[in-house]
Amino acid sequence: MSHTVLICDDAIFMRTMVGDILQSAGFEIVGEAETGIQAVEKYKQLRPDLVTMDIVMPDMGGIDAVREIAKFDPQAKILMCSAMGQQALVVEAIQAGAKDFVVKPFQPSRVLEAVQRVLG
Amino acid sequence: MDTSDYAELFLTESREHVSAVNHWLLQLERGAGGDEPVTAIFRAVHTVKGMSATMGYGVVAELSHEMESLLDRVRRKTMVITPEVMDVLFRAADVLEQAVEAAVAGDGDDVSAAPVLERLRAMGGVTPRAEAAIAPGPMDEQLWTAPAPEGTGRVVRVRLVKDTPLRGVRAFLVVQALGRLGEVTGVSPVLASLQANEFDLDFAVRLRTDALPAEIAGMVRSAGDVALVQVDERVRGTPPAATAIRQPPSEASAPAHAARHVRIDLRRLDALMNLIGELVITRGRLQQIGAQLGDPSLDETLAQASRLIGDLRDEIVTSRMVPVWQVFDRFPRLVRDAARGLGKQIDFTIEGKDIELDRSMLEEIGDPIVHLLRNAVDHGIEGPEGRERAGKAREGRLVLSAARDRSAVVIRVTDDGRGIDRVRVIEKARAAGLMDAAKPDLSDDELVRLVSRPGFSTAERVTDLSGRGVGLDAVLSRVRALGGSVDVKTQAGVGTTVTLRLPLTLAILRALLTRVDAELYAVPMTHVCETVELKSDRLRTLRGREVLTLREEVLPLLRLRDIVGLPRRAGEAREHVIVLELAERRAGLVVDGLAGQEEIVVKQYDPVRSHMQAFSGATILGDGAPALILDVSSLS
After folding, report:
1. Using a CB-CB distance cutoff of 8 angstroms, which residues of chain A are in contact with residue B191?
2. What is the rounded distance in angstroms from the CA atom of residue B220 to the CA atom of residue B405?
3. Which positions in chain B touch A101 (Cβ < 8 Å)?
4. How many other C-beta atoms lie within 10 A of the C-beta of residue B115?
5. Phi, psi (5° rounding) for residue B209?
6. Which pLDDT does position B238 carry in this prediction?
């Protein structure tokens, strides 16, 4: 059975790209979120095996979303998607409950390695 | 640990590595030890490079990088050591030392490293910095740039994959993963630096855990982007104390000494702290009782005692005994450079490196010793041809030794040079009217006293021929100010030995209290050999001087009554003789009585009146009475 994924990013371009990478590796994309609030709602609703989370999103940022999700489900497996220079934010996200991170621009192999680590 | 602590650790450690570099450069120049010197220097500069890059000290990192590149070529035998290479390396070591100090002081850009960098590059060829810094050669795999952190448990060393994105966060994930196996008790660089990417690719974690090394390594790798992981077999149980500075990162980088750190036996320090703590408490009680009794004289004494206890506490907290090598280690370079400049060959050895002295004492004594060494090289030891003509080996010998002698430390500088030219000194002294023309010769003591007269030693004609004039007076006054004494033994054509006898600490002295009339005088135990009762049958007069015969030894006698200007006592009053030990001589001091030993805190004072020159300071005794401290070295 393939793993289910929720992709959270405000940019369609990024959602598409992450989706493609994961799909081609056999993952099932069960949902997408454009804001932090949406991310939390959809997580509760879909209970995916994996969440990819952008850091900067409108209305509720990725870090707060991680915090909310971890509160709801401490076992949630969240992979942060960050840009260079967001070091401190990534640390904060990990402290909030994220399990690992990937850095843009995405390389498929790196994304998949990180996903394996998060799920492993 | 905040970043300033970290800077201090960087400084301590880098100084040691620079010192190691100098040590091994000297070996390398001599051609001793095969490949070991190159390897050791390489390791030392590599470690400095890693640390300085971590700290963001650009100049230090660049310099150590270039040194490393050059040494790498030597190591790989694509380059041979020539005198020019040695010169550049020595110069680079000097600039590196300056750069380390400047970087920590916050003015790293003040050091002009450009000329030496250029020379290094010209010799070693330019190595792109990033490549060398990241690509580990076969040897680099054993070289970890991050020092082992404080804390208990095992040391886990981790190297991330080159080009790891956000390596700070990756390192954080590794630390977090390790936390799942037990308690992380220390991280190096500190977590905040790690998260800020302030490290090369290496970091180290101290982990207290029951997990096996293989499990630990597996956990580290599970965090991702890990190139290398090494779990130390040793487990440290007891927590390190604040005063113990940690293990060197690499045993091999420390030549000649097993440990190159300030080490204080904590039990001793703790015991002292406990005692002084108890004393402070007792003081509180005493003050309460004093307040209840309302006795003015008691109050006065209590106030006195309070101050003394406060002083004592401060001293215990701040005082640290350190081994002399911390200062002595820079001397081989100094001697080498001075000798080279003069075209002389000198075999310089240091003995008793581990003898300890009060830290501030050691700092004070550094300059006088430099003076003495320079004198020996400049004037004492002859050039190779001169030595050959004198029937000596072409290579001169210079020995600096430290030894503990009861409550004193004895430091000697011995050379096998030409000694003080007695004839010329006498000539000069007669000309200057400092010596009776009828007197045929001078004793060693007189000779030394002559050449160390301030005016005498700086007189042109003597300085360039006496071989001993320069700065000896400066050494003498400095050492006396520290409560020590100086002696010089010289033999024309054979050599000179200068002996310094120093108390162990500056502020607290153990003193023998002596009495003349109702007054007490303190004699530092540094100079006390023994005390005997004065028996008239042992007393003689020799060449107009009173002497005492003690076990076959004839000691000149001095009377404290004469020194302080009191008349001698009439009749058969019982008197005591304190046998004083100066650097190399002995003398007897006659006093009315002895009043025991006491730890005294030295108060410096200004000897305004000339006859007070016999005293180096004053102290307040336990009972509140003041006492003058005898300056033993001034007695003659």
Report:
1. none
2. 54
3. 166, 169
4. 10
5. -155, 160
6. 44
Contacts of A117 in chain B (CB under 8 A): 222-224
At a CB cut-off of 8 Å and minimum separation 6, what does B577 contact?
B531, B532, B533, B534, B548, B557, B588, B589, B590, B591
User: Is residue B513 within 8 Å of residue B521, measured between CB atoms?
Assistant: yes
Q: ipTM of this predicted complex? A: 0.85
Model confidence pLDDT, tens digit, residues B272-284: 766 776 676 676 6
pLDDT digits (tens, 9 = 90+) for B407-454: 678 999 999 998 877 777 777 777 777 777 677 777 766 776 676 665
| Cβ–Cβ gap A87/B197 under 8 Å | yes
Which residue has 């520290």 as its token pair?
B482
- The number of domains in chain A is 1
Kindly identify which residue of chain A lies nearest to residue B165, measuring between CA atoms: A103
Find out whether B379 and B425 touch, Cβ atoms under 8 Å. Answer: no
Q: How confident is the model at residue B551 (pLDDT cuts 50, 70, 90)?
A: confident
How many domains is chain B partitioned into structurally?
5
B279 and B224 housed in the same domain = no
Distance from CA of A55 to the nearest CA of B (A): 14
- Alpha-carbon distance of B64 to B48, in angstroms, equals 7
Taking an 8 Å cut-off on Cβ atoms, the answer to whether A87 and B168 are in contact is: yes
* B308 and B355 together in one domain: no
Select the residue from A81, A90, A100 to test the B interface by mutation, using most B Cβ atoms within 10 A: A90
Tell me whether residues B224 and A113 touch, CB distance under 8 A: yes
Confidence at residue B254, expressed as pLDDT on a 0 to 100 scale: 36
Confidence label for A58 from pLDDT (cuts 50, 70 and 90): confident
Of B169, B195, B196, the CB nearest to A101: B169
Specify whether the backbone of B421 is left (phi greater than 0), alpha (psi in -120 to 50) or beta.
beta
User: Tell me: the pLDDT tens digits for B371-391?
Assistant: 889 888 888 899 999 899 989
Q: Which residues of B touch A113 (CB under 8 A)?
A: 224
Q: Decide if A100 and B173 are in contact by the 8 Å CB cutoff.
A: yes
Residues of B in contact with A98 (CB under 8 A): none
A112, A67 Cβ separation under 8 angstroms = no
What CATH number should be reported for the domain holding residue B187? 3.30.70.1110
The Cα B355–Cα B468 span in angstroms is 27
Q: Are residues B342 and B453 in the same domain?
A: yes
| B570 alpha carbon, distance to own chain's centre | 50
Q: In chain B, which among 145-174 make CB contacts under 8 A with chain A?
A: 165-166, 168-169, 172-173
Do B428 and B485 belong together in one domain?
yes
Domain that holds residue B277: 266-318
- Assess whether B166 and B97 both reside in one domain: no
Q: What is the CATH number of the domain that holds B53?
A: 1.20.120.160
Q: Distance (Å, rounded) from C-alpha B499 to C-alpha B483?
A: 14
Closest approach of A115 to chain B, Cα-based (Å): 11
Distance from CA of B165 to the nearest CA of A (A): 7
Mean pLDDT of B396-405: 92
Domain holding A57: CATH number? 3.40.50.2300
pLDDT of B556 higher than 50: yes
Instruction: Give the full edge-to-edge strand order of the sheet including A4-8.
Output: A28-33, A4-8, A50-54, A78-82, A100-103
Nearest partner of B155 among B233, B258, B261, B247, judged by Cα: B233
